[in-house]
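Structure ticket #2291
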Amino acid sequence: MKRQLRSTARVRYDTDKEFAMKQQIKAPKKESSFDLFWRKHDTARKTLNTIMFIIAPALSFFLMENYTHSPFKTMKPFPIFLNLFFYYIVAAMLTFIMGKIRSGILFVSIFSSIFGIINMYIYRFRATPFLPWDVYSFKTAMSVSGNYDYTPGARAVKVIIGFLILFLAEWYLCEGTISFDKKWKTAAVRVGGAVISFSLIWAFTASLHDDYIVEHKYCLYDKLFTPDTMQYKDGTYIAFLMELRYLTPGSPSGYNENAAKEKLATYNVDDSASQTPNIIVIMNECFSDPAVDCDFTTNEDYMPFLHSLQKSDDSDSVTGYLNVSVLGGNTANTEFEFLTGNSMAFLTVGSVPYQQYIHSSLPSLVDHLETYGYDTTAMHPYHAQGWNRNKVYPYLGFNQSFFDTDFISAGHDQTIRKYISDQADIEMIEDRYEHKDKDKPMFMFNVTMQNHSGFDELFSNFDPEIKADGVTDVAANQYLSLMRESDRSLQSLTEYFTGKEKTVIVMFGDHQPTDSVVNPLYKLSGKSCQSLTPEEEDSRYEVPFVIWANYDIDEQKDLNISANYLSGLVLKTAGVPLSDYQQFLEETEKKYPVVSGRRIMNADGKDCELTDARKELNTYEDLQYYRLFDWK
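Resolution: structure written out below.
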């Protein structure tokens, strides 16, 4: 009997143990106090999930922007709304993909905190925010990353603490999942929601690449010249999405690299030059003649020296008007067209090659002149990082570059308004000439800064001397007075080089000023920049140019060409052989003397669409693409 009881007990024990093991999955797991609380208060949990989904993306936006600026101070309500809309649809997409609200909003917050830190340090180190094309500089950035101080400032510490608090709140206060009683329903909702969210993100990004929508519907700031301002006014992510459109252009239809090489090989380039005069090129900031398309009078001529060269038949000069691709800004594009012979007509509207496309050495006027023994120098009396010049100039082949700090250390730091004056600029040119290698001709490319906008603020160190009759507008009169200073400086430079060794001096403007500056002058003729005819609008993209020599040259007047052809004209005037590409451009110019981002004009003086001229300009586009992207 005792033996039987033991056996029964053992069986019961084994059965209980087995049963417990089999039912272990049903045994209640140990819950945290938070889990127990939310299980008992399901309605509160759902409410809090909704609140967290509303609050967390918005806090991520405001915290990330605060790494560098306060969005409440720099952004208008509608751009803030657009940013919040983007954050919410991204959070929604991630929630549908991951199945949990916590995961979706936490991912957005973590990514924003990291992106914001990267953007903050890039801005600290180079004074511009993180841009899409910075991916091209990743290796370079890593190679010098150890040279910087990464100690966060007080502002950054506060933002980081804010993000850490947000992370904890998202982790502990958000428990919601996307689930239904049927698995197929859960899968359908998650997949459908993710697809819809992604489609909204795609459509929204596409709308940011539409100029009309950006300017007239969203009212966003889209001037790539100041990406920091874009970020401050539009928001970091929105600005970044807008900039994606300029990342890289596709190759032309039917493009073949070998065909481009073979085309260039058909031109013969002379190994030596019969003469190599000094060549000094000045791209004068915002230098233009408003009288090109509006009638007005002034108390005195605002550019008497240039006007005298344009009229004289015995001035050893070549004068005319240059068709540029930009208006009111994007200076570097005119610079790009002159130095490379390339045209913005074949690149994305609004793009800036100096920032997006030039990441290694490429052929230019600079390296061509070096083959004939020229010592090449670039100068700009402002920040080296502007338009990425400190990186681009070596890629173009310049032996040396000088920027604002070099002007200041050399004592050429006189200012007009708040910029180094043109007079100080040409004194620096003269200084470099006097210290140049006597055995080498000098090629100098100089970009001035005196005439940079804005023009509506008066300064104690500059008293505008030019007054347009019937115009009291400060900006218009100050602009004309600055043109007088630039003209005076050009004359001074030509007088300095008169009687010296052979030297060619070139000066041209990069673009005309914005509409607000010249509108008062147009009103005198009953016009407005907002109601110009297409022909009058084209004139807004014309700036004067002059090629002057201190020795006898063949004079030419009233030329009308685009900036991409000017370097070839300079070489022909100076007697220096053309490169293979410039020989091709010389042929193209005979058929299309103007090929710019604004217009294309044929030899008959008629404007035509790029699509209409595509067949004849296709080779130009192919050669440009090869030299810009495939050159080795």
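Closing remark: Residues 538 and 599 are 7 Å apart (CA to CA).
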